[in-house]
Design goal:
Largest sheet: 5 strands, mixed
Helix content: 25-40%
Number of strands: 12
Strand order of the largest sheet: 1-2-3-5-6
Distance between the termini: 75 Å
Strand content: 15-25%
Radius of gyration: 28 Å
Structural class: alpha+beta
Number of helices: 14
Order of helices and strands: HHHEEEEEEEEHHHEHHEHEEHHHHH
Length: 348
């Protein structure tokens, strides 16, 4: 077998010529036997590709070096230990599909150059093959981030062009998913949040979706404390002040709350007493905040600095988490009642 070091850039053209012969053969055969090809899905198509590769490789440096990997490996077919062919299909009349995992944890060792052979398996059946990295437009999520395949991408439109990082550089990073998440996080609009988190993140998402009404009183109280801690804008007069918490509840905690405003604000006004001084006419949301201040402070001190920076969207000095939250809370609420008593008198 030809050594790995013998396959370099000079062989890319020869390998691409081999793939061109494979595509030409399969497209011509599909015109003659369309019914046979529409039945070649999954591993059956992979077997067909291997068969045609072996036929077309006779007399070339790739002869007798074609191996199909069984099981969940990437790519599906390896040639000479250096080149790979990933086979994807769709039964719809378009050229898009969900690709392989961003993490590439099942990548066959030593494979350096991967090509994507894509089959549109509805009549007329047609096949296209391109370098893998030239077919990946975005990242989508099933159980983990996966590339979105688009065989009609123009030059400069790949996900790697958007990231500003070549495919081979990204795939060799210790945590490529983190780079992907950082990119999408930088493009979030107000009220949006990523719902998938990488394994290095300290938070986890629940698999089960629950309604707020099904939670125990203790769980509801815990989520209110977290809400005040992560989203100081709950104290503001903004019309969208509940949006970020609603998204967070659904995506990170698996809780759907259709009436979040009522959870915090319903019930009119109340009176708060601190150090013998009464503060009448305080809104319900401030009353809830005041009663949970100790729990909020305790929770904030336990949360990782980086996580708080993500939610608060600001930097702060080490050891100043509580002071930072207090300032954010004060900034989000001008007054707590009709007499204009500042929030600072209650939390400091």
């Amino acid at each position: 077998m030809k050594s790995l070091f013998s396959f370099h850039m000079q062989d890319d053209r020869a390998f691409e010529e081999l793939l061109a012969k494979v595509i030409d053969f399969m497209n011509r055969e599909a015109l003659t036997f369309p019914k046979m090809y529409t039945g070649l899905l999954g591993s059956k198509l992979e077997d067909k590709v291997v068969e045609v590769l072996q036929q077309c490789a006779v007399g070339t440096c790739f002869e007798d070096q074609i191996v199909k990997y069984s099981g969940q490996r990437f790519p599906d077919i390896v040639i000479g230990g250096y080149y790979g062919v990933e086979v994807k299909t769709t039964k719809a009349n378009h050229w898009k599909s969900t690709g392989s995992s961003v993490a590439e944890g099942t990548r066959v060792e030593d494979v350096e150059r991967v090509y994507l052979l894509f089959g549109k398996m509805c009549e007329p059946v047609c096949f296209v093959c391109k370098p893998y990295e030239e077919c990946l437009s975005e990242v989508v999520v099933t159980h983990s981030p996966r590339y979105l395949v688009d065989m009609n991408l123009s030059k400069g439109e790949t996900i790697f062009d958007k990231l500003g990082i070549p495919y081979d550089e990204l795939r060799c990073q210790p945590n490529p998913i983190r780079t992907i998440l950082d990119y999408y996080r930088s493009r979030l609009k107000e009220g949006e949040e990523l719902w998938w988190l990488d394994n290095d993140h300290s938070k986890v998402s629940n698999l089960v979706i629950r309604m707020w009404s099904s939670l125990s009183p203790q769980e509801k109280q815990r989520y209110q404390i977290k809400g005040f801690s992560f989203f100081p804008e709950l104290l503001s007069n903004r019309s969208d002040k509940f949006n970020r918490m609603a998204v967070w509840l659904a995506t990170q905690e698996g809780v759907v709350c259709p009436n979040l405003r009522d959870i915090f604000s319903a019930g009119g006004k109340e009176c708060i007493t601190k150090n013998g001084e009464s503060y009448p006419g305080v809104s319900k949301v401030i009353g809830k905040l005041y009663r949970e201040l100790f729990a909020i402070q305790e929770f904030i001190q336990q949360v990782d600095d980086a996580e708080l920076q993500e939610y608060w969207k600001c930097q702060f000095n080490i050891g100043k988490k509580w002071e930072t939250w207090c300032q954010l809370a004060i900034n989000n609420l001008e007054t707590i009642n009709t007499t204009g008593i500042p929030l600072k008198k209650l939390i400091c």
